[in-house]
Structure formats: structure tokens, C-alpha cells
Design a protein that fits this description.
Length: 212
């Protein structure tokens, strides 16, 4: 098409309210995430590869407005290859339901994709090795909000050693995306006294989510 004709065609589209000629659709992102999951599934960039049963990449809505980010797979996740299953996963689903979200509305991933032995915290070197995978997931999904659960995930994402309280007290930013921090569901299962403050965190998150 000659340049002038192309310009006229673009003008016509613009005048008819069509401002984007190409927008990634679900299948693009789904296929890309599946491709990357397969590509990285045999990753051995850090020692966590040696003890894993399954690489736990992440799952959910590729066009999610919110991503949930945890720390690392646990036993159930390692066995199933899925993030947040078992008791902590069930509680996460209840937490989401409490703010009118289904698990299928969000995308769920962890900082590290392989289970640390005995569920210990992932080492700094392991987190550093694995972070590029999460950054790439965020780049593809481009969520509008990040809900980070637990101290290790918050410290890693935001690059500090501050307390959970410090993280919960304000909205942060990562890759230009607002970051909300609350308790990890596994922590809430251990200490029910944290359920009330966690509910307050979720309400603050929901208030802003509903404005999207
Ligand atoms: S935790 Fe991440 S960096 Fe380490 S082996 Fe697993 S996928 Fe690779």
C-alpha cells in the first residue's frame, strides 16, 4: 500500500475510534507463557533444581488485572507443579473470594519456581537466579496491581530487608505497578490473630482494584 494511502487508512481508523491496530489477545499470552514454562522447566541455574519434583512456573488468567506473588513452592506445589495448592492455596482462594475475586481472575506465581528443602526460605542467590522468570511473567501479563503475600516475597521484590509491617503500611511500586503486601496464607494458618490485619490489607487492595 502506498504511504499516502496507508496514512489515509490510519486516519480513517482513528476517526472511527480505532486507536490500536494490534492488541495481544489471550491466546498470544497463553501460548507465550506455555512456551516459556516448557523452556525453563529443566532450569538448573541454582541448587533448588536438585531437590524439585516439579518446576512450578505459575498459572492463571494471562490477562489478569492482578497478580498474586508468593515466595516459593511448598510440598503440595512441588508434587503437583501448581502454585498455591493444599491448605495455603485453599485459604488464598477464600481470601480472594472475600474480595469478590475467583482464582481464575488472577495470575499466581512465586519468586522461586522450585521448592526449597524442608520449606526453608529461599537463599538470596536462589531468589536472584530465579527473579528474571517472574519479571518476564509480569512483562507479559502486565497486571495493574501486584498482591505480594509474605515477607520474603516482599523483601525480594522491593529489594529491602524491612519488616512485614513496614511493607503493609503503604503501597509500593515494582516495574511501575502498584504493590500491595499482606500476610502469606500459610502464616495465617499458623496464627489466626493475623487474620484481622490481613482482612484490612485485602480491603485496601479491593478498594483500589474496584477503581480499575
Ligand atoms: S529455583 Fe528458579 S533459578 Fe533455581 S533451578 Fe528452579 S527455576 Fe532455576
Amino acid at each position: 500500500m502506498p504511504v499516502n494511502a496507508l496514512r489515509q487508512y490510519l486516519e480513517m481508523l482513528k476517526n472511527n475510534g480505532i486507536k490500536e491496530l494490534y492488541k495481544p489477545i489471550d491466546t498470544d499470552k497463553t501460548a507465550l507463557l506455555a512456551e516459556l514454562k516448557a523452556k525453563y522447566s529443566s532450569c538448573d541455574k541454582c541448587p533448588l533444581s536438585q531437590g524439585r519434583t516439579n518446576f512450578v512456573y505459575g498459572e492463571g488468567n494471562p490477562n489478569a488485572k492482578a497478580m498474586i506473588i508468593g515466595e516459593a513452592p511448598g510440598k503440595e506445589e512441588d508434587l503437583s507443579g501448581r502454585p498455591f495448592v493444599g491448605a495455603a492455596g485453599n485459604l488464598l482462594e477464600k481470601m480472594l473470594l472475600a474480595i469478590n475475586l475467583q482464582r481464575t481472575d488472577v495470575y499466581i506465581a512465586n519468586i522461586v519456581k522450585c521448592r526449597p528443602p524442608q520449606n526453608r526460605d529461599p537463599e538470596a542467590t536462589e531468589r536472584l537466579a530465579c527473579m528474571p522468570y517472574l519479571v518476564e511473567q509480569i512483562e507479559i501479563i502486565r497486571p495493574k496491581m501486584l498482591l505480594v503475600v509474605g515477607l520474603v516475597a516482599a523483601q525480594t521484590l522491593l529489594g529491602n530487608t524491612n519488616t512485614l509491617q513496614w511493607h503493609r503500611d503503604k503501597v509500593h511500586e515494582f516495574m511501575g505497578i502498584p504493590v500491595y503486601v499482606t500476610y502469606h496464607p500459610a502464616a495465617l494458618l499458623r496464627n489466626s490473630n493475623w487474620k484481622r490485619p490481613a482482612w484490612e490489607d485485602l480491603q485496601a487492595f479491593q478498594k483500589d482494584y474496584n477503581k480499575l
